[in-house]
């Protein structure tokens, strides 16, 4: 079977955008290049002295792993040099990074929200980590960037994707015309189409949640966990519990096998832990495009009007019927 690289695929699919003049295609290719650079370092993390804590504290108050910083730098540099992105909102920066002054084309019309290395607390234990990105189009390319252009509702995303640096490295993305997965072939240094037109099963037998916080969960979630553990062969219960603690890895597995991932609000995270702009919105866009669903338990993720850049939201995401089952306990 002929190999289709990410670059070839993006060009072939450009026809999906009647008005596109190739900028989004170039932007996606810029992200692919940075992903390869990050992959090279993540794969060798145990070898280089890059492991361990750099000691800086990012705005999340988490000790920044050197790889976080490296990944953030690679993606921002690739976007700056590519010239198609005018503004980057990154988990690693309290304020966004305005590239409009020094992008090659002053008329860059895309905004990127990114979590450069999600799950980085897992790096030392060699657990899969990931990058999550979300792309919006700005309203006016001829004036300073406005907050309303950055805090757009998730439904307005023009593209979203993730890279999972795992047993193999994959890039999965959507531009609103379905979801496609590419596996990195290190021997040729190319992401090759390996999972065309990905779809998530309407129901599965996996549930992913950190049950250690059980006592702090809302009643609806406690009821759902009990539901998962009941014996009912007709609905494949009891379900299997699978929780990696790396959002990209947990959601990617559920996308492939069917299942639901839940990070609800808890008494110490009243708005949940995961961030709307660069974790929940992009993953919700991808999962919805694959036929799944994503909500807070009561509100569709993609319809939430963002208030702040690093806003957190609760999330229930995955197989449609399983998300709806969780939602039924919130009623
Ligand atoms: P907890 C990783 O730190 C992360 O941001 C997500 O990748 C992951 O889903 C979540 O936090 C895990 O959080 O509280 O279960 O350790």
From TrEMBL:
HAMAP family: FBPase_class1
Ligand binding (substrate): 118-121, 210, 243, 273
Binding-site list for Mg(2+) 2: 115, 118, 279
One Pfam family this sequence matches: FBPase
Pathway: Carbohydrate biosynthesis
Cofactor binding note from Swiss-Prot or TrEMBL: Binds 2 magnesium ions per subunit.
Domain Fructose-1-6-bisphosphatase class 1 C-terminal, chain residue ranges per copy: 200-330
Gene Ontology terms for molecular function: fructose 1,6-bisphosphate 1-phosphatase activity; magnesium ion binding
Gene name per UniProt: fbp
InterPro entries hit by this protein: FBPase_C_dom, FBPase_class-1, FBPase_N, FBPtase
Protein name: Fructose-1,6-bisphosphatase class 1
Lineage of the organism: Bacteria, Pseudomonadati, Bacteroidota, Sphingobacteriia, Sphingobacteriales
Reaction(s) catalysed by this chain's protein: beta-D-fructose 1,6-bisphosphate + H2O = beta-D-fructose 6-phosphate + phosphate
Family of the protein in this entry: Belongs to the FBPase class 1 family.
Cofactor(s), by name: Mg(2+)
Residue numbers binding Mg(2+) 1: 91, 115, 117
Enzyme class label: hydrolase
Record GO biological process: fructose 1,6-bisphosphate metabolic process; fructose 6-phosphate metabolic process; fructose metabolic process; gluconeogenesis; sucrose biosynthetic process
Organism encoding this protein: Sphingobacterium olei
Localization, UniProt: Cytoplasm
Subunit structure: Homotetramer.
Keywords: Carbohydrate metabolism, Cytoplasm, Hydrolase, Magnesium, Metal-binding
């Amino acid at each position: 079977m002929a190999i289709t690289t990410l670059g070839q695929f993006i060009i072939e699919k450009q026809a999906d955008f009647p008005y596109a003049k190739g900028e989004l295609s170039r932007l996606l290719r810029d992200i692919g290049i940075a992903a390869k650079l990050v992959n090279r370092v993540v794969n060798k993390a145990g070898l280089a002295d890059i492991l361990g804590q750099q000691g800086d504290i990012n705005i999340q108050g988490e000790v920044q792993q050197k790889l976080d910083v490296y990944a953030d730098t690679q993606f921002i540099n690739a976007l700056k040099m590519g010239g198609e992105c005018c503004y980057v909102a990154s988990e690693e920066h309290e304020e966004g990074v305005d590239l409009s002054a020094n992008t090659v084309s002053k008329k860059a019309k895309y905004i990127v929200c990114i979590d450069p290395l999600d799950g980085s607390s897992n790096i030392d234990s060699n657990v899969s980590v990931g990058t999550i990105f979300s792309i919006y189009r700005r309203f006016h390319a001829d004036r300073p960037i406005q907050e309303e252009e950055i805090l757009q509702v998730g439904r307005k995303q023009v593209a979203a994707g993730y890279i999972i640096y795992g047993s193999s490295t994959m890039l999965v993305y959507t531009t609103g015309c379905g979801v496609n997965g590419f596996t990195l072939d290190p021997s040729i240094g190319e992401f090759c189409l390996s999972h065309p037109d990905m779809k998530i099963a309407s129901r599965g037998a996996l549930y992913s949640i950190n049950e250690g916080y059980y006592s702090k969960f809302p009643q609806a979630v406690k009821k759902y966990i009990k539901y998962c553990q009941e014996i009912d062969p007709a609905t494949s219960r009891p379900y299997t519990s699978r929780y990696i603690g790396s959002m990209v890895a947990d959601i990617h597995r559920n996308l492939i096998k069917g299942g639901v991932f839940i990070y609800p609000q808890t008494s110490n995270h009243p708005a949940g832990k995961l961030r709307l702009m660069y974790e929940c919105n992009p993953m919700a866009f991808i999962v919805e495009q694959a036929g799944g669903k994503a909500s807070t338990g009561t509100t569709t993720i993609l319809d939430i009007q963002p208030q702040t850049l690093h806003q957190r939201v609760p999330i229930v995401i995955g197989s449609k019927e399983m998300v709806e089952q969780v939602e039924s306990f919130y009623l």
